[in-house]
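Q: What does the assembly look like in three dimensions?
Context provided by user:
Components: two
Sequences:
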Amino acid sequence: MNQNEILAECNKIFIDQLDNPSIVLKRETTAADIDEWDSLNHIQIIVAIEKRFKIRFTSSEIQNFKSVGDMCDAIAKKVTA
Amino acid sequence: MQKGDVFIEKLKITDELRDGFIKLFDAHAAIHTNAEYAQKRKFKSFIIHGNVLSGFISHFVDECLPEKNAMCYAQNIKFSKPVYLHDELTFHAEIKAIHDSVNIAELDFFFENTDKVKVAKGDLLIGINI
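A: Here is the predicted structure of the complete assembly.
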């Protein structure tokens, strides 16, 4: 799965979890760019991503996510490992 | 808590529980309040609101888990069989997955009556040590 495919899958997850079909994620997107992306929804997004990609993040990985791109990079490393 | 952990709790549908739910939520549909009406629809008597069971799940999350300060993030529940006043139910829950990075547990659950009939089932997403 390449980076574009990972981003597209994440986009579907965000739309579903945040119930906002207008979301278009970019690598540089952050929580500040999406009103509904609060701390409660963030946890559900992480759980949905872990389930979709059959991976597990560590707490420190999550804390280091500064943007959607960081998250996609972490996913890419795990799904290709 | 870890994957595979099982929790079992008992719940009795008391008059106080049923009456309190109806009063607090102002929910008076005939199927839930009128025995004759319910019997004409093939039920033994009026049936208990399914969301009484949802209320019990809040009790389970708050009071019955070994980890305190838990919170329910998401819940799906299907009410498959009627529950009646004074029924005694057993709640079974099992941890299906743990997401350590965000302190989340996924659980499947069901409620069973004394005839071993599953009256409701579903799944939960619970945050622990919130």
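Follow-up: The domain at 6-12+49-127 of chain B is CATH 3.10.129.10 (Thiol Ester Dehydrase; Chain A).
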